[in-house]
# Entry
Amino acid sequence: MSQTKVKKMLFILSKATLENVYAAFVMANGARMEGIESEIFFTFFGLEAIQKKKLEHLHVATVGNPAMHMPTMLGGLPGVEAFASNMMKKEMEKLDMPPVGEFLEILSDSGCKLWACKLAVDMFHLEKEDLIDELDGILTIGDFYSRADQEGTQLLFI
# Structure
């Protein structure tokens, strides 16, 4: 029995919270560092991570996030989301984690492909000019799935 090695990782990012964006970016970057092809497909609210006007203003999800270890009602109070987001950004800075825009450049320069979902782009009335310059294109979900049609490819939904 032959053992298939991971050759390509395809990440689907549907939410642009700091914790989801960094999870996808770190994993995609880690794949590239291991010599594995990687691609990120930004869909629905994940598109905010590649919108020029929004990518540096992402927040931590404080409402309904069990990892916050606080009652949901507290997470919705004014200032809690901003406070949590600033704390997370400071901790990432201590670890030399680049800001979102810089991380996207690093990913692109490493060969990671960055794709926007056509349906979501149309639904949110976005234009290509609204999105980062490093974007490799706008794909339908069928086009994205066809990129997964090879042995050794894994899909991960974040």
Q: What stands out?
A: The beta strands are 8-13, 37-42, 113-117, 137-139, 153-157. Residues 18-33 form the longest helix (16 residues). Helices lie at 18-33, 72-75, 80-94, 100-110, 118-123, 141-146.
